[in-house]
Design a protein that fits this description.
Length: 308
Amino acid sequence: MSDILTLEGVEKTYDTGFTALTDVNLSIRRGEIFALLGPNGAGKTTLIGIVCGLVKATAGRIIADSHDIQRDFRQARKLIGLVPQELSVNIFESVWDTVRFSRGLFGCPADDAYIEQLLKTLSLWDKKDARIMALSGGMKRRVLIAKALAHQPNILFLDEPTAGVDVELRRDMWAMIRRLREEGVTIILTTHYIEEAEDMADRIGVINKGKLMLVEEKNALMRELGRKSLTVFLSQPLAQLPASLTRDDLQLAEDGTSLTYRYSTAEADSGVSELLAQLQHAGISYQDLQTRQSSLEEIFVSLVEEKA
């Protein structure tokens, strides 16, 4: 799969001396969904702003589908759609005029049939003549999405797209994103809802304090950095663990009714078989076993804390 967006040594230092980004190198594959995760102030929005031409980089080079963002800005920017965090529309205009005007801004010929279909897809058609100021927060968010898609971009940035929106819009939005990906659109999103990234993304990038900490296939990240826990439900409660079983990765519940064993999914030998054999040797019987995989959120939090 070829790359559609490449960032080479991108940095941003503001006049105040604050460094928002440091030597960011990243390649986004054509047609993938890429999730960029990081705490508040990590540099996610600054990075998006640089790619979209809203913020000027201090150093580095960005190529969007063979177009250099600095040397060939118009052609590069025409390929990119952006759904920002904040409302950025004229609230006195109608939905139809706002979306139609956005298409013209990128030099695209008028295509009312496409705009109509776009508004219908986003459940905005019955609001097409309404002024944006009269819309609910969820409907305004739909307008931002329609504006971003009006010129039919190949790359779509979603900066915290579901923050503060209702469950119905969130569901509709992710259904639409899946359709766009099927049509070949590349999606880059930032989100605080890590379960969304876990469900939607092909690859995950983690950024913290302006530095890109890692980029990995989602499934590989879960395998390499995830941990599993095995809970052993005992037939009889234990007052304490036998000396032969005292170890950091094995904990006895306060009520003595279960044991929890934690292990890495990256290791070839999980140690589960050895543990069960040790229990049998110690004369400890059990009635049930339960395993649990670490979530992406837990992995993300541990990564940020480790690099803090």
